[in-house]
Amino acid sequence: MSRIRILSEHLSNQIAAGEVVERPASVIKELIENSIDAGASQVDIQIEGSGVRLMRVVDNGCGMIEDDVLLCLERHATSKIQEESQLGAIATLGFRGEALPSIGSVARMTIISRDQEKDTGTLVEVRYGALHAVHEEGCSRGTVMEVRNLFGNVPARKKFLKSARTETYHIEEVVKNQAIAMPEIGFSLRFDERTVLDCPAASDLESRLRYIFRYDGPLLSLEHSGAVATDSVQVGGYLLLPESTPTRSARLRIIVNGRAVQDRMIRNAVTEGLHGFLMKGYQPAGAVLLSISPELVDVNVHPAKREIRFRDHREVYQFLKTVVKSAIQNHQEHARAQLFTPVPKNAREEQEVVRENLITAEPVAEPFQHHLVSPVNPVSVQGNNAVPREQPKFVEKLTATERSEKVPEHISPAASFPSEEKTGKREAEFGGLRLIGQLFSLYLLCEKDEQFIVIDQHAAHERILYGQMKQDYLKKDIPQQRLLFPVTVELGPDHMETIERYHEDLQSLGLEIDHFGETTWVIKSVPAVISVLDPVAMLHDVLDMLYESKGNPGQVIAGVIDDLLASMACKAAIKAGNVLNSEEMIGLLQQMEESDVFSHCPHGRPVVKTFSQPELEKWFHRHGG
Ligand code: ADP
Ligand code: MG
Fold it and tell me: What pLDDT band is residue 3 in, cutting at 50, 70 and 90?
């Protein structure tokens, strides 16, 4: 029996009208959607001449009986909805019965289809809207759609097509999106003789995404269930590490109920959720798959079904943002477990002993004196009167000149670098990381198992301070430092207005400022962490930031405060060029291990980079011995 019905005029009038066929990619999108709606498990796409000459989509879906092969060419003929009530909860990709007649009117289209239950199939050919041939055809189960000579009868439209490269790019994008949306379906894509994609059926989302993105780095899982209004919502998908170098395919792909869409709200939710982990100018990449009751989404808003509308978009936004935030937090725990072996309490005490040993070691260079290197365990390098013990091994390794004196050529290094057992010396170690030393007065070099680990001391410290300051700020407890001599500052009208408006917020940031008279203000206290900075310049910076956010109270102020804390943390943190001694380096590692978030600086730059031993061996062509 025929599955397809023609929609009533009343119903078809309620369907978002507009041009369906803009370019070859729109044809491919419609044809793939039909194959998926037909329950196909394999969809093969073949393109010739960037789509204008030929597009062929072959599927193993339900197929059509002869009546339906003819009916599907009619406007508003569809098997997917029948009555108005269904328009409010569309569960298929198609629903308008417009794609095939539209394509058939601007191309030569052949449909060869065989219903799963039938012994033979049907071939129908349409040329620019006119039925050209219908006959029985021996073929395999499923459907073959062929579209030739696109826009052959509308040269004006053909002229508007872009270069072959652009058109094939759009086709590829359509297929990639759909392949990510449906990892269980196999997809192949061929341009002329070149196979560009071949994704096996029954994949899991992770391997599908890695294949499409050509990415084998870490992924942040978004797997989560929750509720919006009274309905349950599921999120799936993955984000690439925010700092991973974007490849051509690695963009943010948004899939709602199996449909690839462009949705600014979802994109913003992801970007916001990644706040503090995404570098300026970087875009989030990955796939967000949202499953939500079809009644809560309107898909009937865009002629090419590219956009959708959520009934409760604010809730969806909040929900997604939270999911992304918790994915980042999970990543912290994962990264922490990878980087540090948990240090049990008694071992911690032992670590302290190691650190004491190190304190007495002669510093490699003038140590960087920073009151914040180890606020948890402040240890002064000077003023330690302990009897000097043996110099730790790594210091020995650091002094290159000494080494070159001690290691004559042709002598096995083992002779000059006595093993631990022989000397009884302790290595500088924390949480299973062996500290090798500091590079370029900026990077901490460490070794663990088969990993070579590089840590950016500034980025690491910046994140730690930022985390601490944020906590203090939320507790309204940012340590203040009273200036010995209050500083007066002249302010322009914009800054005066800003000060008056945000006086309380400034106070909770640790800035105590009083009006002195006319345009003069007095800075009495500053946040302790930046007490080394020029208070006047700092105040101007802060007021500029607040002024620029003018007119947007509430959330924006929270964002500005966040930026402020980040820039305060940046200014207060140890810098590139600060020579650290081993005790300070260990102190930094310990603080990293203890802090909630340590993987990225507040501006989204990564803190840790790991090189595996095999990776290094590859560089030196050592594989295989
Ligand atoms: P819609 O997808 O909105 O229903 P289309 O014009 O794309 O409208 O397709 C019309 C109908 O043709 C579909 O409802 C479906 O019944 C049938 N059809 C189209 N493509 C296929 C296919 N590949 N396999 C089986 N049936 C198909
Ligand atoms: Mg369709």
Answer: very high
List the domains of the chain with CATH numbers. 9-199 (3.30.565.10), 205-339 (3.30.230.10)
What DSSP string describes 166-222? HHHHHHHHHHHHHHHH-TTSEEEEEETTEEEEEEPSS--HHHHHHHHHT--S-EEE-
Cβ–ligand 1 contact at 72 (below 6 Å): yes
Query: What was the pLDDT predicted at 119?
Result: 95
Please give the distance, rounded to the nearest whole angstrom, from the Cα atom of residue 181 to the centre of ligand 1. 19
- pLDDT tens, residue by residue, 286-340: 999 999 999 999 999 888 888 999 999 999 999 999 999 999 999 999 999 999 9
User: Is residue 62 within 6 Å of ligand 1 at its C-beta?
Assistant: yes
535 in contact with ligand 1, CB cutoff 6 A:
no
Q: 3-state DSSP: the chain helix, strand, coil percent, rounded to 5?
A: 40, 25, 40
Average pLDDT over residues 52-81: 96
Q: Which helix (H) or strand (E) holds 497?
A: helix 493-501
262 CA to middle of ligand 1, Å? 23
For residues 112 and 463, what is the distance between their CA atoms, to the nearest angstrom? Answer: 61
- Give yes or no for residue 94 CB within 6 A of ligand 1: yes
Ligand 1 contacts CB of residue 71 (under 6 A) = no
Rounded to the nearest angstrom, the distance between the alpha carbon of 221 and the centre of ligand 1 is: 35
Distance 526 CA to ligand 2 centre (A): 64
Average pLDDT over residues 150-157: 94
- 259-282 pLDDT, tens digit each: 999 999 999 999 999 999 999 889
Asked whether 92 lines ligand 1 (CB < 6 A), one says no
Structure-block tokens of residue 46: 């073949």
Considering only CA atoms, which residue is closest to atom 12 of ligand 1? 72
Sign of CA dihedral 466, 470, 472, 473: positive
More confident residue, 559 or 57: 57
